[in-house]
Structure formats: C-alpha cells, structure tokens
Amino acid sequence: MPLSEEVTAAAQRWLAIDPDAKTRAEVEGLVAAGDEATLRARLLSGRMEFGTAGLRAAMGAGYDRMNQVTIAQSAQGLVKYLTSQFSAEDLASRGVVVGYDGRYNSDIFAQITANACIAKNVKCRLTSSVVPTPYVAFALRQFNCVAAVVVTASHNPKQDNGYKVYWANGAQIVPPHDGGIAKCIEESLDIDPATVGTAWHAIRGDCPIPAIEERFFATLQPMMERFQKLTSATPLKFTYTAMHGVGGNAVLRARDVAGLPEANFVVVKEQFSPDPEFSTVTFPNPEEGKSSLDLAIAAANAAGSTIILANDPDADRLAVAEKDAATGAWRVLTGNELGALLGWWMCEQNLADDVDFTKCVALSSTVSSQILRAYSRKFGFEFKETLTGFKWMGSIGGAAEDDEDRRIIFAFEQAIGFMCGNRVRDKDGVTALAVAVQMAAVLATQGKTLLQQLQALYAEFGAHVCSESYVTSKDPKRTMAMFDAIKGRDTKTGYPDAIGGIRVENVRDLRESSPIDTRQPDGKPTLPLSSAPMVTFYLEGGAVLTVRGSGTEPKIKWYCEAIAADVAAGQKLVDKIVDGAINEILKPEENGFVRRPE
C-alpha cells in the first residue's frame, strides 16, 4: 500500500533537513518499505518532551528521538532562551560550557550545540574530550558561565542518549526555565546551516579536561587532608568499575587525593575505558546491584578486595558493595544506606572543623530516607526535603547558599546520588568515591566495617528501614483512575484512614488537581506541585509511604520507610505497610497493572 500524502510530505521534509546520512537512510528505508505506521509515529506524532533537566530518548530518525535534527533544534532553542535571559555581553564573555560522554553520537551532539552557540555570538567552552558529568557542573560555576550542557544518557541502555542542561546557579534546570526552553525549541525548528556545519573544529579544546581537573581536585584536597596519611596506611583493598563509562581517569585522581596507595586499588580492566556498546553488561546501571557487578565481584574476589566501588557511565552516581568476612557474601548497599553513612561522615567532618551548623543545610528527596532529619536534631543544621531529583536539591541548596548565607554539607537521593559538600551542585560520583574510601579506611582503624557502622547509626538514630518497588501500567487512564480512587474513600479526608492496619495520621497530595498537606496549618503543601501524581501517607509511629507515577516511564512506584528499634522490627512494619499499599491502593490484578519481576 502506498504511503499517504501526509506521511510522504513529512518524510520529504525530514530528508531535506537531516544532515546525517545514517538517519536519512533510515527514513529512506522506511519509505521504501511503505511503513506508514512507523513513519507516522516518528515524524507526525509529537516531539521528545524537554523536561527533567533536558532530553533523554533512543537514538534514531524522527522527532521523538535523539539525532542531529532534534539536537540542532534543541540547541537553537536553548540559545534563543539564553538570549532572552542574559545580556549580549554576558553571553559573549561568560558563555556556556558543553561536555559529553562516550556514547555513540555524543561528541557530534556536543559539537552541534557548540555551533548553535557560536552562530549567535555565545562563547562556548567545548570540552576537549569525553568528561564526567560532575566536571561540567563544577566547571559551570568555576568559569562563571551562564549555562552548561552535558550530552549523556547516564545509566540508560546503549541505544539511548540524552541532553542535560544546567543553569547559571550550577544546578540542573527547574521551572520556569525548562518550560521557557521548550517553548523556544518549538520556535527554532528551522535549522541554521551554521548549526550543523564544521565551525566546531575551530574551538575544540577551548575547555581542556586538565584545566577542569586541576581545579576540581585542588578544591577537593582540603576535604581530604585530615585522613590522607591514615588512608595511605590502610590494609583495605578496593575494586573499582567505571561501567564502561567516563569516570575511570577521574577516579584514579580521586584515589590519589584521598591518599589510597595504587596497590590497594584494583580496576576492572574490561570496564575501565569508555565503550558505547557497554559490551559486558546488559544494563550499565550499578543501581541494579549484583546483576551489574558480576565482573567487579570476580575481580574483587581474585584481588582480595573487601569493598567494591562502581560509578555509572557518566560518573555522577556511586554504588558500594562490601564483603562479609564471615560468609564471603557480597552485600550491595542501597542508596539510602550509603546516604546514611556518607551523611553521618560529612557531619562528623564538619564537626571536627568546628563549623557553625546553624548556618548549614542538608537535603534529601521526599522519596529517600529521612535519616538526615534525625541527624539534624543532633548536629543542628537545617534539613530540607525536596521533590525527587537532584535538580531540586541543587537549586534549593544553591538558593540557601546564595540567598540565605547557608552552606550545603550534604545531599542525597535513594537512587545512589550523593552531593558531598558544595563544590558541585549536583550528584557527584567522583567526590563521593573519594569520601567513601577515606570513611572506610578510618572505620577500619576502629575495627568496623561499613555495615557495622550503619548498625551503630541505627542504634543511635533508629533503624531507618526502606523499601521501594513498582508496578507497570501501560494504560494512563487506569493509572489516573487509581490515583483518583485514593481520594474517593468514605473517610473524613477522603483518603484512606489506615494502610495495612496502620493508622494514617496525615496525607500530602502534590497533584495539581487536589493539592493538600494536612500537616500544615493552612493545609497547603510546602513543596512544589508535581507534574506526575504523588501522594504521601504519614502513618502512626513515624512510617511514611509515597505512591507516585513516573514522569518518564509507564510505572507506578512506591517508597516506604519505617523507623524502629532494630532492623527486624522495621522490616516487619515496612512489609505490613507495603502489603497494604499493594492490596488496598494499587490493586494490580484488579487494575491490570503488572508487578515487578523479582
């Protein structure tokens, strides 16, 4: 069957503007095959949504994918928005820093972004090679730029790429900037030939990696000085994997600054260098746990290491596993557990520096463990809870520093993202790794492992036991019906008055259609409303349950935390609440949701 006139015209438009022979050939092949449905989906069914800090999608031809056309349009839209927010003088002198990871096309997408900047007289500092994401977030403020871009899909599969945007405050973009950029992209769909030209050759290397690296580690050095000598004498051995990403060389520098001898640090050679195929892992995501750490575990066992350190491919996140000396089994710490340890360590180091905690702030997202709140009662810093994502922690923490004369001491989210100090206003897996190495070395001198110290923290602050999972929902109407039913109960508030037999004391609903927080005197939430539905239940005894829709995946996620005298009691309570949430709220079988495969 021949293609419709509408699809034929759309394909011709694409072929006229696409500078990439590979994606042109992809469209030409679909035209030759008469694949009306795929062409319509790719060319007529909408664009990638510019949302959570930027773009992320599969690479390929079409407006719903990452390719030279959509990146050129996005880069032009970003530059247009910048010209509306900053003076011509600022744009020409301060400019934008642009970096990229080791994925397919990342360098080309970065070059196109640089071209779009140069075409409008915006100074561009394009990194001289692949770069860890934390380096770019760091360089943004070091060079006083107005914005930054990192071309990366972080821990996504190899077929994906992404486009991460930072604002002048050093944090990922939040409203209203994300919406402003999206609007400007829609107004910048005609591609300037200069955007996909070769002007980038003239500026490659304007932002050499060594220049960033020297500043990055010079500012890390003061954090490391206290325990460098002790760390240099540690008997501990660590095994490290870069997960085929760009963190390897940066982490070797971090190892040296921490004081750890080279002999105590074993790298997984097969995963050390950037590899766009991610050839040894199914998912290049250390958050997956042991399934992504097979090679690291084998290398650690062979070398006699007791701790594994893993970055995700753009090195902004950190996973840690520890070997049980008695059983030989490996235990991968959750993001909440590692956040508890790193948060405690950062508090203790600031205490040793005689810091005025009343002028300090620590942050975690609303779906992460609230153990920092417990720490704040002991140390005296201000604790701030944010929406999910480091864009909120970076922005809110940055505002506390810039406007309230506060200092960020730590921030984390349960998805193994950590901000140790205020040098980088985003998650930083390189700095977190250096801090984790010194923390483990010091604990070893006290005869403690990481997990033993975690138990000590639970004994002092209460066992903060967490659980999270999801169901898959491919029908948005059923998802919204489930969330609507949460408030359709025959109770005083309309929300459930108990979950799993545990009394609900308060509710916070961040949906724009029904915002409420019964903990507040005026009943209004203090957090921004969420584009995806998010309802939190505060239960008797201090337990918390959050149910939220994912903004990027067809999933309904839940997060539960209970605080108890010990882990066993906390786990029992969490299990009871989660069972209640599944059977009383989510009702997967009734609603046609698919449970997460175990």
From TrEMBL:
Its cofactor is Mg(2+). It comes from Neobodo designis (Flagellated protozoan). Keywords: Isomerase, Magnesium, Metal-binding, Phosphoprotein. GO terms for biological process: carbohydrate metabolic process; purine ribonucleoside salvage. Belongs to the phosphohexose mutase family. This is Phosphomannomutase-like protein. Residues 48-187, 229-323, 335-461 form the Alpha-D-phosphohexomutase alpha/beta/alpha domain. Gene3D superfamilies: Alpha-D-Glucose-1,6-Bisphosphate, subunit A, domain 3, Alpha-D-phosphohexomutase, C-terminal domain. One of its GO terms (cellular component) is nucleus. GO terms for molecular function: magnesium ion binding; phosphopentomutase activity. InterPro entries: A-D-PHexomutase_a/b/a-I, A-D-PHexomutase_a/b/a-I/II/III, A-D-PHexomutase_a/b/a-II, A-D-PHexomutase_a/b/a-III, A-D-PHexomutase_C_sf, A-D-PHexomutase_CS, Alpha-D-phosphohexomutase_SF.
